[in-house]
Design brief:
alpha+beta, four-stranded antiparallel sheet
């Protein structure tokens, strides 16, 4: 079985489990089993084009939400056909047991699995080497002088070992302290601090995700008066920030000013930020095109808003129990000056 992969994928959680599951999964076993017995030439000649057509229809229906019935029907046909092939294969084997070499068939099943499992350590080793090469390049780019590069590299190896997750983090950067360490021990300590910080980030993120479920629908607030139900906070902030970026980019285009139809130009599509379509964003642009703002209500009833009271890069932020009543610089809920965050306490969670 061929493994089509890139070394960076090996650092992803469950990567090797997916490969093992792929070679010993029920789908592979069924696929092999139904191929033990074959139909006559004429049956195969007719059957193959039919299966190709059904497969194409299934792929097309997967991309079209309106073709759910077609997808269900074709899926049912495939299931029934697979069941028929299994029964047919069993019947053929039982009718001619002398012709069935059990050991040969068993070897055909097991051999690809063993080959794949054997090559996995090699893939992991190559991924580690590749990862360290990129991480060492980051070290070289972050150093003031190259004479002590070996100390930083050795300290990194001692700190990260063969754990791909941390090696990949070093590839991304943020290792200045490690790269500029004056000794192996300092580099090792810097590497362990990176690991500790990433573990803390992971714990905070896990806690955040758990709280999304725990406080869904809750009206409780934290010690600072902020709602504990933070569903769609991040998605709303990301979508509004993207809308601000688009407004800033389009401002200088003729006719100059903020575009009242920008939401329509974007198709009101913020799915890449996690919002469904329509997004629920409401936008207002002043008559002269020099001011604008947009807001969105989250499931807990919190309203997030962003806008500008002048040409880019002017930016005003707000979040509160009610949407803004006026444009930035004109409504009191925005505060007295742009780029202030005291009226947007939930924007930076």
């Amino acid at each position: 079985m061929a493994i089509d992969t890139k070394f960076p994928d090996a650092s992803k959680s469950g990567f090797f489990g997916e490969i093992v599951g792929g070679v010993i999964g029920i789908t592979i076993l069924v696929e092999y089993f139904v191929n033990l017995a074959t139909f006559s030439f004429w049956v195969e000649l007719i059957l193959q084009p039919v299966l190709v057509i059904l497969t194409v229809l299934l792929v097309v229906s997967e991309r079209n939400d309106d073709s759910r019935m077609v997808k269900t029907t074709i899926g049912t046909i495939f299931i029934l056909f697979a069941a028929f092939l299994i029964v047919y294969s069993i019947r053929e084997l039982l009718m001619a047991p002398a012709q069935a070499d059990i050991r040969f068939h068993a070897l055909q099943i097991v051999w690809p699995i063993l080959l794949t499992l054997w090559v996995l350590p090699l893939i992991y080793a190559l991924a580690v080497i590749s990862g360290y090469q990129m991480a060492f390049l980051r070290v070289s780019q972050s150093q003031d002088e190259s004479s002590g590069a070996w100390k930083s590299r050795l300290g990194m190896i001692l700190a990260f070992g063969i754990r791909l997750k941390w090696i990949r983090e070093a590839e991304k950067g943020g290792i200045v302290h490690l790269a500029r360490a004056k000794s192996v021990w300092q580099a090792y300590r810097a590497g362990r601090e990176i690991v500790s910080e990433k573990l803390s980030e992971t714990r905070r993120e896990n806690e955040y995700q758990e709280n999304l479920i725990r406080f869904a629908g809750s009206e409780e607030v934290d010690g600072e008066g902020r709602p504990l139900d933070k569903r769609e906070f991040r998605e709303t902030v990301a979508a509004l920030n993207w809308l601000y970026t688009c407004h800033s980019g389009w401002y200088s285009r003729e006719p100059q000013g903020y575009k009242a139809d920008l939401l329509a130009r974007l198709g009101d599509d913020f799915s890449m930020h996690g919002l469904s379509k329509p997004s629920g964003i409401t936008m207002h642009v002043f008559e002269d095109g020099r001011r604008w703002y947009a807001w969105r209500r989250t499931p807990c009833g919190r309203h997030f808003a962003i806008g500008a009271g002048g040409p880019p890069p002017d930016q005003w932020l707000y979040d509160g129990p009610e949407p803004p009543s006026d444009f930035p610089g004109m409504g009191p809920e925005w505060g007295d000056a742009p780029f202030a965050d005291e009226f947007a306490p939930n924007w930076f969670d």
